[in-house]
UniProtKB/TrEMBL annotation:
Gene3D superfamilies: Cupredoxins - blue copper proteins. Pfam families: Cu-oxidase, Cu-oxidase_2, Cu-oxidase_3. This is L-ascorbate oxidase. It comes from the Eukaryota.
Amino acid sequence: AATHHHEWEISYQFKSPDCVRKLAVTINGQSPGPTIRATQGDTIVVRVNNSLLTENVAIHWHGIRQIGTPWADGTEGVTQCPILPGDAFTYTFAVDRPGTYMYHAHYGMQRSAGLYGMIIVAAAPGGPDAEPFAYDGEHAVLLNDWWHDSVYEQAAGLASVPMRWVGEPHSLLLNGRGRFNCSAVAAEGTCNATLPECDAPVFDVVPGKTYRFRIGSLTSLCALNFEIEGHPMTVVEADGHYVKPFVVNNLNIYSGETYSVLIKANQDPSRNYWLASNVVSRKPGTPTGTAILSYAAGGRSPPPTTPPTGPAWNDTMYRFQQSVATVAHPAHVEPPPPRAGRTLLLLNTQNKIDGRVRWALNNVSFKLPHTPYLVALKRGLLGAFDQRPPPETYEHQSYNIYDPPPNPNATSSDGLYRLAFGSVVDVVLQNANMLAANNSETHPWHLHGHDFWVLGYGIGRFDPAVHPASYNLKDPILKNTVAVHPYGWTALRFKADNPGVWAFHCHIEAHFFMGMGIVFEEGLERVAELPGEIMGCGKTKGGRH
Ligand code: C2O
Ligand code: CU
């Protein structure tokens, strides 16, 4: 197995990803950052130099389980102190499974400022994880949404009374590029439609060949629908796991998810076709994000058609059915343990604390402690966070998920859930109405340090006496991010077998910022000595502790 060394400098740069100039956080001057490529079993070493002048940083390797290296998870407040301006931090971790993964900042709302990229891990040739499908070429598409307001303005607005919501994004980006309508920009000289920086990305195909598209989403807010005009997609991978193939014209993808699809370049090769991303689940206020699928004869020119606008944004059942259709490939089924030792039933609500709008689980809104849990727990610093665990359930018999919360006030806590090492844990995420009537959003939940089996989905109130009987224990997909649909529930199961401290949160940047997350600890006594690098700054970091 090989070791891949990367030297990254994180800096502010003025960028125009959608032709509008804006301050971005970049890696070696780029946003998105460089794609990390490796083969299963390899080791990745990334030395991150923080050259941001006035801002901390931490980088999370999304979908990489960090077995034996919990301190490299890059979660500020959970696994490490942030990397201070002028400091450097070296992340070393193994990529033990093939598949499509991502990385992004995990500090404040910094991910939305442009610090993100893709990780592509090839299967070990001839090994048991070799792909159960064939293709002639491959492309990668990383989806995002983009605002012209800075993340500082966004965060300040979210924390204000009354809250100033971030609103719908100005643009949707594909591989960091979009196209804003310059005539809608007031300030002279800040929008330039002729910049090559905001040219649509072009994906070349040769007639008759089959292509794998790796698609990832790191949107700050939006659920997206992705399509390739005229080219049905066969879904073959989700979050690094092989899927029982199914064909879609429109792929729904939530923030934190990755998919691979296969397409055949079998359309009229005299023209080009659109790749399109559209907002779903929220009423769209953002134009379609586009790129070009190019058959050589079509050159670089835009397709002659208008870009597809996707399915109806509020067709929840359409998205629900695609979630249900995503199950394990028959030759790669890893059956889940038949039952769980513990079940957390987490009600997702929007609440208020001291007049501020927050998100809460079972009426408790999460706040990050100032001392990272991993360090606090290893050193026995019991005063570093609330030692009382958050609640495991809520009044599920009486709670009406279709009404706004009867008691809008929540409390906040930095307590965590301690799991018995090796135990099997079920989590049921129950969605509900928000503070305003007749509204429930889609929440993409992401678990660090593990993959979980997706046992079931429902719309309506989850009943612990009824619904577990309908769980899919035969061929559930393993994932690291899963959607909870409006007014719905999602049940997942995982094994607490990775020593460390792991975040579990809604991947909508604003929602996690407003408290929509929890933290698990398991097997702490098995965590090796912590590298001093994860704590403090400069020379105070010291050796191993
Ligand atoms: Cu990709 Cu904690 O997130
Ligand atoms: Cu959310």
